[in-house]
Amino acid sequence: MPAVTQKSAARPDPLSITFAALADPTRRAILARLSSGEASAGELAAPFAMSQPAISKHLKVLERAGLITRGREAQWRPCKLDATPLQQANEWLERYAAFWSGSLDRLAAFVEEKK
Amino acid sequence: MPAVTQKSAARPDPLSITFAALADPTRRAILARLSSGEASAGELAAPFAMSQPAISKHLKVLERAGLITRGREAQWRPCKLDATPLQQANEWLERYAAFWSGSLDRLAAFVEEKK
DNA sequence: CGTATACATAACTCAAAGGTTATGTATCAG
DNA sequence: CTGATACATAACCTTTGAGTTATGTATACG
């Protein structure tokens, strides 16, 4: 018997993983930094008042979200941005574009109705 | 003396709140449902195999993220989509658009450089 | 070889997130 | 006033997340 009931451990869907990864200012700052070129973990850690293992964890979160890839160069691990999941997130958001670009229109309609 | 050391309780920045709110499939589904018009909490809860208080909590998360507003109509609480925070999120994401739409270009440049 | 550097992993703490059941509150309907 | 409906809140539990310190591992260097 395999392990009895196991809460199924279902990993969240990709979009949830992406948004969760983005829901942290440190990780967003890391991505911003990587948008101007590759960097090692140490270089990425430098700006933050945080321990090295903390950054290491953040990088792992970003990696599991597919937002970065890591290579190996001597004892450095160069990190590289992969924006593919950001594109997915953007596609999801775009479906709501009408609701913000149209907000003035809807406000106008509301005013019109009130008259 | 007020409470000694208090971890400062700093509320997260708006973008983090927005992304965190979006990092849950139930909440994204609720937003999708609201994109086709207002709905009461009960109507929003119907599709989910989840208790009523659970939905109530999700709605509170969405409300605190500014993604919905709630009115009052008899004993119903009509929910309405407010996409403003989505626009903010979109603006953040757009800064990375070059990294996905331009990926083929950058690959070509890389190949060119390698020659 | 031994040592320094760069990073990963382990073990732990604390708080927050997501769910539950039970109960409270506001509003309508009779 | 009474009861039903729609929702919110409280109290609780379990899992996950973000941080810490301490330790392990891989690579360069003398």
Topology record:
The structure is a homodimer of 115-residue chains.
Chain A: H1 14-22, H2 25-34, H3 41-45, H4 52-64, E1 68-70, E2 79-81, H5 84-94, H6 97-101, H7 103-114
Antiparallel strand pairs in A: 1-2
Chain B binds a DNA duplex (30 and 30 nucleotides) through α4.
Residue runs with pLDDT of under 50 for 5 or more positions of chain A: 1-7
Strand order of the largest sheet of chain A: 1-2
Question: Main beta sheet of chain A: strand number and arrangement?
Answer: 2 strands, antiparallel
Number of strands of chain A: 2
Looking at how many chains there are and whether they match, the oligomeric state comes to homodimer
Q: What characteristic shape of chain A results from the CA principal axes?
A: elongated
